[in-house]
Every structure is written in C-alpha cells, then in structure tokens.
Amino acid sequence: MQNGSTRSQEQLRGLSRPFFDTLANLGFGGVAWYVALSLGSALTGNLAAICLVPLVEPGQLMPSGLGWLMSGTADMQVLAFVIASAVFAMLRWQAARVGARLASRYGMYMRQTVHARRIDAPLSSLSDATSAEIAHVLTYNVEIVTQGFNALLQLLVAGLTTVVSLAMALWLSPQLLLAVPFVVGFALIASRISSREQVAVNRQYVADLTRLFWLSEDFPRRWRHIRSFGREDAEKAHYADISQRLGKGYRRQLDLIASGRLVLEMLAALGIAAIFFIANRWHGVDRAALIAVCLLLARLLPYLVSTRQYFQQLRTSIPAFELWHRHVDLAAAGRNKAASSSPVSDALHIRQLQLDAPTPLDVRDLTLVPGELTLICGDSGIGKSSLVDVLAGMVAPAQFRARLGDDAIDFAAYAALVGKGAYVSQSVRPWQITVRECLRWAAPDASDAAMLQALVDVGLDKRLADASSALDTTLSSSSSRLSGGELQRLLLAQVLLHRPAIALLDEATSALDPDAELAVLSTLKRRLPQTIIIAVSHRAGVASVADQCLAISAGRGIVTTPDARETDRAAAL
C-alpha cells in the first residue's frame, strides 16, 4: 500500500506542471479577479454576520475596533446589516459569474487542445489507443476535468472564507488560539478518510465508461453482426455487467461523499464545542465576542458540508486529466505543408521505397504521372495500406530515393509536394450533416453548380434526383440515408472538387459493382488531368482502366504496364 501511495504522489507531482500550464492559458488576470471577488465576499459576509451581534444581544459592548456597529439606533444597525448582506450577495454573484466564464474557457481550451493535438499527431499514435478511448477523451473525459476545475474554484472560495472567518474569530477572541491545533488535527483526519478508496473507485469508473464507449461504438453495424450470430443475450449480459459496475461505482462515490460529509460535520461540531469549552473556561472573554465568534464559525458549516464533495470531484478529475494529458503529450507529426496549391507538373520517379514495419516491403522503379491511374493489388495483409500511407506522405519509410523531373528529392520534399492530397479509404463515413456540408468541407469555395456537377460525375444524380434540394439532403436521417456505395460516391465527389495533387483511394470503390467502379475511376482520370491517382483494389478488372499496376507479393512490389501485360500474355500463348 505504501508503494501505491508513493506512486500516486509521484504521479500527482508529474501532473502538477501540465495542470498549471493549462491554467496559464486562461490568463492570470481572470483568476486574480476571481480571487479578489472571493476575498471581498468573504470579508463582507463576515462583516454581515458580525452586524447581527447588536441585534441579537443589544447593549453588549463590541470588541475593540467594532464599536461603531453599536452606534446609532436599532434601525441604523438593521440598515448596516442589510447593506453588508447586499454587498456580500452581489460580490458572491459576480464571483460566480467570473468562475463560470473561467470554467467555460477552461473546458473549451481542453477540448480544442486535445482535438488539435490528435489531428497533428503522427499516424502511429492512433494505433496505441482504441477509437472508444479517443472518443471518450474528446467528450466526457474533458467534462470530468472541467468539473474538477470548477471544484478547485469552489475550494478556493471555501479556503478564503475559512481563513478570513478564522482570522476574524481570533481577532475578536485571541484566546481561541489554543483551539487551533485541535481544528488543524480534525481537518487532517477528515481529509484522509476514504481518500485512497475514492481514487480507486474513480479510476475504475473512468475505465468502465471507456469500455462502454467501445461497446456503443458504431452500434448499427454491430447490431447486424450480433443478430446474425444469434448472440443477443450474450451482448445484453455483457452490457448489463458493465452498466452494473458503473451503477455500483457511482453509488460508492456518493456513499463515500456522504460518509465523509458526516465525519466532517461531526468533527466540525466537536471542534466548535472545544473552542467554546475553552472560551467559557477562560476569564475575560466577553459575551459579545463569543456571539460574534459563533456567528462567524456558523458561516463555515455550509462550506464544510460542500468542501468534502468538491475534494472528491477534484480527485475524480485526476485520472481524467491524466488521460487527457497522455493524448495531448504527443509529438507533432512533422508534416510538411505544400509550398503552394499548384499541382505536380512533372513525373515522380521513385527509384526505391522500402518499408521495414509492420510488413517488410521493397518497391523499385515506380513512376507516378499526373493524369494517370496506378493500381496497387495484392493479397490482404501484405502491406498495401502501409504503402499508401507512405505515398500519402504521412509515414516515413525506412529508405526513400526519388526524382522529380531531373531533380533528386528526399522524403521530406516528397511529402511537401503531395501535401495537397486526398486520401479516401473504405472505412471512412462522412460525418457532416448534409451533402452540401460534406462537399463544401472538401472545397470551401465550390459553387452549387460545381457541386451538382460533381454529383453527376460520380453517379449520384439519379439518387438525388431533385436538383433543387439534392445538396441539402440529410445524411443521417432514415428517410434519406445513403447506402455504402452511395457514400463512397459522395467521398469521390469530394476528391473531384478538391482537385488534389495526389488522390489515394484505398478500397474506396469496394462497395460499388464492377461496372460502376470502372465508370467512376474513368471519370476521375478524365476530370483530374493534373492529379496522380493511386487506387487499391482486389478486382482484376480495374487493371483495364489503369495505366500501370503495382503488384505486391513476397515483400516486393513489381510494376507492370498494359503493354508489358500484353507481351507477357502473348509469350505465354
């Protein structure tokens, strides 16, 4: 247990600097203003409590420095109490508004940072986390961290109020200094109760939520798979088991909060009793001072009740912040942006391209010409997708030698050259709401006429027959949902509008029938004369529209052209 506690402390120390870095992005001006408002509300709240003393116990002498509260009539004393209470309420309201703005900005920063870092991270980092974990860290996980930040703000208010209240109580009755060790001791005991169990419960809760994300991901496709195998009962039981653990975890969190609150309230009652026990035994303590101290300490009871809950929320946010930081603490991919949006003008001759992992592959003498289509074929799992990642400039190969025209280029120059590209795979589904948003995402300046023409080119004009509303077709509604092949056509329409320097189609036409596949690929070649087109397909018929074929077998890529294929067939005959 000691080793676990030591690891937790080291972990917290490791996360402290990243956490303060996130606070720095908020700007210390807003935090300082929040602290000032909280301090002002604590002072005026205590002053309002002291203003009750002459109303509760008329005729009693106030401690030194507060005699002015006894001056004037009872109406003036009531007015002083009302003014102090009103100022306290206004300051606390303004502090709450500033705290809400800070929490909102903090949540926005956390979401934007992790999303941007995920996009800029190298492709290999995606293999280290499940899609459910990534979805979780982009959504609910940040919400937990934001709640922890808000709890920290509330703890700051509670701390300032406690310090100011105790300071004024000690000023009114210095004899209470004898009770400070008891108060500190009670506070330390309360802070240690169930804290280790709370952290363990919170970590398990976050892990179960991530697992639930994984089970819920892409449910329509999983539904078909589950039903076809007749495994409905097994999936229901599995989901129910995780849901039960989540329910128990949530209940245990609330139980721990309630138990801690009970212990804290009991310790607070004992502490206040000890203070007044000492005060009553100490000669020279006047009644007005005791009443003032009682009122000041009574103001702390609501904070004592809520402080425990805020501490638990803060502990809950620690594993969530750790997960957020792990996804943010990624090296940038180092991708070189294209120097300009101009297409590749000369042929790219790749003399050697070698991959060591995940599948060894050696490709030699591959020439990529704008306006021509290169077919990559081979058995599944042989390295086709890995090769496409390299040709897209997203993953650096083990060796790379190439020329552009008469000039030799390295992989960094190649990646910059194909920076304005388009990569479409069979597993990508549009995430935009309408057809217009999907096409406008790929080409922000495209006109309605250009988008409609692209739909005609890919063969979606018949499916979206009404030209007046075709672009506003909703992709997610059940009445207008596009099939898998139609979604692939829509993504290919994005390619036509984007006019990339290189278009990489990794099984991007797999959901089309063979004739439709050939028609769409032929249209792409005709409409994109300045684009290098690379298509991965298992269908042999695609070779009829390809200018060359890169066949991968036994760790090698062999390039053949239509003329060479005809020569081989003639020789075989």
Automatic annotation (TrEMBL):
The keyword Phosphoprotein does not apply. This is ATP-binding cassette subfamily C protein. It is a multi-pass membrane protein. Pfam families: ABC_membrane, ABC_tran. InterPro entries: AAA+_ATPase, ABC1_TM_dom, ABC1_TM_sf, ABC_transporter-like_ATP-bd, ABC_transporter-like_CS, P-loop_NTPase, Type_1_exporter. Residues 32-316 form the ABC transmembrane type-1 domain. It comes from Dyella japonica. Its main location: membrane.
